[in-house]
Design brief:
This protein is an all-alpha fold. The chain has helices at 5-30, 39-64. Helix 1 runs antiparallel to helix 2. The radius of gyration is 16 Å and the shape is elongated.
């Protein structure tokens, strides 16, 4: 099965998010007090939208085959 550009972008974004979380986790260990993750306000909605688009594309492709 050939992946669409949206699906490839989604995979790349999730890998980049995993790398980002690794570095944030290391950074968070050095901080004292509560950590407010304002970055997640931007990251999670983008990942959710891309994931939904990828799933919709996958389901549409299975229906047409």
């Amino acid at each position: 099965m050939k992946l669409t550009k949206i699906q490839i972008t989604t995979i790349v974004l999730f890998i980049a998010w995993g790398v980002w979380e690794f570095f944030v986790y290391d950074w968070a260990k050095t901080e004292e007090g509560p950590i407010i993750r304002a970055d997640l306000v931007f990251i999670l909605p983008i990942l959710a939208i891309m994931l939904i688009l990828s799933i919709v594309q996958l389901l549409r492709r299975k229906k047409s085959v």
